[in-house]
């Protein structure tokens, strides 16, 4: 009922919103207004109708509930009658057994002539009928106790038969039917039955055997008796109800009640009473037969208490037998069940395990409630007829007339509003008293940006200047005021307007009609004419100044940087340093080239640019361009393939500067517009004759792509695919335009193949002439130490390029190629010492699917990747080299094949640290062990060896009182005394040592503003930042970080910091949870700040994100979300701790 009630509430709420929501209707529409009124009318009628129906249903339900209760009372009365009869029979049977067991039979042994009966049994073949000397009621006795030693047992059983004959139930006769019974011994040698069996039956028993007849008579009783334990049978209250069965003689349905008899704790006999079911029905049905009450036996199939000849009661029997679950679920409590249109009241009868059932159905309910139903339906029908008659009359007489009048008014109003809205000028109706807008069209809103109900800022000055009155207007003297004004449009721009104002009547009040005409374009055209001549004169001057500035102000510092790089190239550098220096130089070269694009474009337009042809190794030039972009491509997580045909490494006649400029533009665009996937640079040569060749290069990416309708426009000057691309990725739109013009100058071309969302391919081709072929490789050691090279590469084009290079450089070596490492195991392992494995993939490390067992069969392994080192490096016996240098890969191959040294001659650079830095004394105040340990190692790496550390501001202050320090590095949040309190205490004590703030929270910047801090550094702090800041504060030069120092520091980050963090985390976690439980927000924030410092050092971004969210909630005072975020934070930290362990 609760679910149905909830459903009705939801439906009513929807109906109420549908009927009474006035926002659904536009009051300006007469049809909609009348429709709204009509919905209110009919909605109210519906509500009253439903309320009346509901009241009727409630009344019917109450009568139905009364009917059910009345039937339950009838059921209880009949159930009590049945239970009383069952209890009476059980009680009488127990009394019989108890009276026999309490009699002292030893004194009555001579009363029973057991010896004579034993002799008679022998004479009459074990079957006799008793006389009145033994039993009041005659019995047929069947016994095999005919031996002398059986005298005692026979005497005892005859006495029991005698007691049974005295039992009052045996003599009861109703309707010519008597209750019968029998007693038998447990050993199945004695059976006494009453009433006596017919003589014909006795003769049949003599012929068939007494023992067999005894077993047949007691079989059903013994089956039921076996279901009980001896202890339970010993219970005086234990009476066995045998399931209903058919009498073998009469065929009628009978019920049997059994009770065991014990002698000295041993069961010796069983007394059984038998009664026809029809006789039992008369006892509890009494004089009146109730067709709705019946009893179901233990088997849930046999029913009694009903008249099977009656159709209705036979139908009840079918229904009950078809619903076994109702009978199985019956219990000692009264239960009401409903199945298939029938109501059933059930309860178990203790003892025989019967189920009392009362049955009624809907026709019975309807018969009982017919009077109330007819009255309710009649009254409800009358009320509904009156209600809906009144509603229909009101709708047709009143609302229909109102609708006609409203439609006429609406059409007139709609016509006026249409004219108002379609006017080519801005129109507004103003209330001069309140100085607000009553109505305006879209043009007026667009010109002024004033909303309805407002207008003070723009219209008030105009209304103040209206010097005429409404009376003059009523005399048909149409006075109009015209004035030029300036306004700010709805889009935010300034517009020039002409305003015309006049008095009119609107909705029974005097208002002002204002007309606005936009004259902005006219004013702008006048101003533009004045400025055009000035701009034309200044254009040439600006261009000259710009070109001069670009040539001097930008190129001068770039050249200065390049000059210093050239000086560094002459100094002693390690291999890695020299490689970095080369990359920096090339990047500066590319920057200078890109800066010259604007100047070059100007020269092209002025037809002053000319190509400067030179002899260039085009392949190496292309590799240098690719190497310049390699770090940026690797940083973005993209794959990069540089595939250059071997002939291009020969000497060609080209303008190398312009070719490099084109390639850098194309690669720069590919990197800029590609967020995932790969970039491929592919260069080939097409020979058309001895002196006629075309160089063709392509740059393909998997970036955003370009729509088909915008592909031609990307080569226009200052043009990109669309505005969104310019906003997202930046750029001036000069690169591709300059590339096309340079190629046209060289006699080449550029074309584009792109699909939006899939990527782009820019292809460039230009004519060139080969000057010299590729030089032949000469080996200092002609002995070849390998016989086979195995190339593993998943990219077919890259594999082809590698195959050509290995073939050209190692012509006497067998070369095999596979796609996956799994295919290596199928190769012949013999001769493994003469094999080289060449692994080509996109990372400078071994592939994840590489197994150590697969690599042991090779003499040497070379890993080629675009982010590999520019010079071959050996790490753990494996050579790593870049794929962006044909020469570097050649060095690696030759070192393996001819046992040559693949390293370039470099010199080791020693670390030099200034002596003054070694004399500086620094004090660190930091409560987070992870940050403290990292800071100490960073200072040591920078050459600061005199470093002390404490865990709070109070200790730092005491140290400053006892020792002179050149610098104090402190955190803002620390126990006992924080950074700001430390600064205040030092200054009050006259200590002027500089303080440097080292904090994990960017939000702390404002806290330190205005304080006497030397600098503010955010965690995590790079060693370069720390070195530069210390150099500035202490007036020392910034030390250089050597690779060895950096490497040790990175190793320290990975290992030592994790150990220190694990030690401090458990204490920090408990402190954080205690603060949260105690709702101590200040202590919670301090603990959180300390933990955040360690997370910043370890670069745990997910945990940092939740940590910052917690800090944000604390600042905003939103305490409800803190517990949820804290649980998420602790879960993430648990995963981090498990990972570190």
From TrEMBL:
<dbReference type="InterPro" id="IPR005467">
    <property type="entry name" value="His_kinase_dom"/>
</dbReference>
<protein>
    <recommendedName>
        <fullName>Virulence sensor protein BvgS</fullName>
        <ecNumber>2.7.13.3</ecNumber>
    </recommendedName>
</protein>
<dbReference type="InterPro" id="IPR036890">
    <property type="entry name" value="HATPase_C_sf"/>
</dbReference>
<keyword id="KW-0597">Phosphoprotein</keyword>
<dbReference type="InterPro" id="IPR008207">
    <property type="entry name" value="Sig_transdc_His_kin_Hpt_dom"/>
</dbReference>
<dbReference type="Pfam" id="PF02518">
    <property type="entry name" value="HATPase_c"/>
</dbReference>
<feature type="transmembrane region" description="Helical">
    <location>
        <begin position="40"/>
        <end position="64"/>
    </location>
</feature>
<feature type="domain" description="Histidine kinase">
    <location>
        <begin position="549"/>
        <end position="770"/>
    </location>
</feature>
<keyword id="KW-1003">Cell membrane</keyword>
<dbReference type="InterPro" id="IPR036641">
    <property type="entry name" value="HPT_dom_sf"/>
</dbReference>
<keyword id="KW-0812">Transmembrane</keyword>
<dbReference type="InterPro" id="IPR004358">
    <property type="entry name" value="Sig_transdc_His_kin-like_C"/>
</dbReference>
<dbReference type="Pfam" id="PF00072">
    <property type="entry name" value="Response_reg"/>
</dbReference>
<dbReference type="InterPro" id="IPR001789">
    <property type="entry name" value="Sig_transdc_resp-reg_receiver"/>
</dbReference>
<keyword id="KW-0808">Transferase</keyword>
<comment type="function">
    <text>Member of the two-component regulatory system BvgS/BvgA. Phosphorylates BvgA via a four-step phosphorelay in response to environmental signals.</text>
</comment>
<feature type="domain" description="Response regulatory">
    <location>
        <begin position="921"/>
        <end position="1034"/>
    </location>
</feature>
<dbReference type="Pfam" id="PF00512">
    <property type="entry name" value="HisKA"/>
</dbReference>
<dbReference type="InterPro" id="IPR035965">
    <property type="entry name" value="PAS-like_dom_sf"/>
</dbReference>
<feature type="domain" description="HPt">
    <location>
        <begin position="1050"/>
        <end position="1141"/>
    </location>
</feature>
<dbReference type="InterPro" id="IPR003594">
    <property type="entry name" value="HATPase_dom"/>
</dbReference>
<keyword id="KW-1133">Transmembrane helix</keyword>
<dbReference type="GO" id="GO:0000155">
    <property type="term" value="F:phosphorelay sensor kinase activity"/>
</dbReference>
<dbReference type="InterPro" id="IPR036097">
    <property type="entry name" value="HisK_dim/P_sf"/>
</dbReference>
<feature type="transmembrane region" description="Helical">
    <location>
        <begin position="373"/>
        <end position="393"/>
    </location>
</feature>
<keyword id="KW-0547">Nucleotide-binding</keyword>
<dbReference type="InterPro" id="IPR011006">
    <property type="entry name" value="CheY-like_superfamily"/>
</dbReference>
<keyword id="KW-0418">Kinase</keyword>
<dbReference type="InterPro" id="IPR003661">
    <property type="entry name" value="HisK_dim/P_dom"/>
</dbReference>
<keyword id="KW-0902">Two-component regulatory system</keyword>
<keyword id="KW-0472">Membrane</keyword>
<feature type="modified residue" description="Phosphohistidine">
    <location>
        <position position="1089"/>
    </location>
</feature>
<keyword id="KW-0067">ATP-binding</keyword>
<keyword id="KW-0997">Cell inner membrane</keyword>
<feature type="modified residue" description="4-aspartylphosphate">
    <location>
        <position position="971"/>
    </location>
</feature>
<dbReference type="GO" id="GO:0005886">
    <property type="term" value="C:plasma membrane"/>
</dbReference>
